[in-house]
Amino acid sequence: MSPAVAFTSSLAEEYRRLYAAAAIRPERAAETARLARRMAEPTRLARYRTVGDRVGVPWFVVAILHALEGSLDFTRHLHNGDPLTGRTVRVPKGRPLAGTPPFAWEDSATDALALAGLDAWDDWSIPGVAYVLERYNGFGYRRRTPPVPSPYLWSFTTVYVSGKYVADHVWSQSAVSRQCGGMALLRALLEAGLAELPGDRAAHRPGEETGLAMLPLNREPAVSWPAGAAGLCVAATAAQTLRV
């Protein structure tokens, strides 16, 4: 497998530029706002805080991953949406290792976040959150020529138009994600005053190792972009937008 994509200053800048350009599409605004409000409901928020406090992750990151992996269903593993009545069947398979099913959602979610190395991550700026989300799902969208902004992050925003994996390793350029992306959810939460970023830290120095030493949990092995290609995703987004 290829080494993981490093969180460098150039990658952090790419995430900043994408987020600055990522307005929520008007036709998706009501749905995105509804999801954000649902994530912040007091009973849900308390469960997200419980898990987040265990591993040092902001509640809204737990909530966003729950929306992406489990459709906000507390009967599903945070790893990949498999049912809590057994260990995970899909990648990552056989989680959690400890305990006996059926699992409590909080225990399984804690395992998922620790497995992803989020207990060792402390950059919860816009770029830091974007990197964590993309790594959780996998960097396969960066393989495309030109690269496609990952719908896992950018679906329902103006920086994503089309292109997605419709099955494991099966690509469709015309397919459009119908799932709200994680950064769209983050924008909705922040703009509604439902969440607040802990602070904007500088990215790691180029080439510096991050706290996330493992490969992404799901679907695609990580890949490294060629040198000097950090801006390709932004350029590809502009080209996509012009075709809308």
Task: Describe the overall structure.
The chain has 244 residues and is an all-alpha fold. It has one domain (9-243). Helix content is 41%, strand content 3%. The chain has a two-stranded antiparallel ribbon with strand order 1-2. The chain starts with 8 loop residues before the first helix and ends with a helix. The relative contact order is 0.22.
Could you give a short description of this structure?
The chain is built from nine helices and two strands, in the order αααααααββαα. It has 244 residues and is mainly α.
Order of helices and strands: HHHHHHHEEHH
How big is the Rg? Answer: 17 Å
Going across the biggest sheet, name each strand in turn. 1-2
The total count of strands amounts to 2
| Main sheet properties | 2 strands, antiparallel
**Helical coverage, percent range:** 40-55%
- Which blocks of ≥5 consecutive residues have pLDDT under 50? 200-215, 219-244
Morphology call: globular
Number of domains: 1
The fraction of residues in strands falls at under 5%
Termini separation comes to 35 Å
What is the number of helices? 9
Structural class: mainly alpha
In round numbers, the mean pLDDT is: 86
Oligomer: single chain
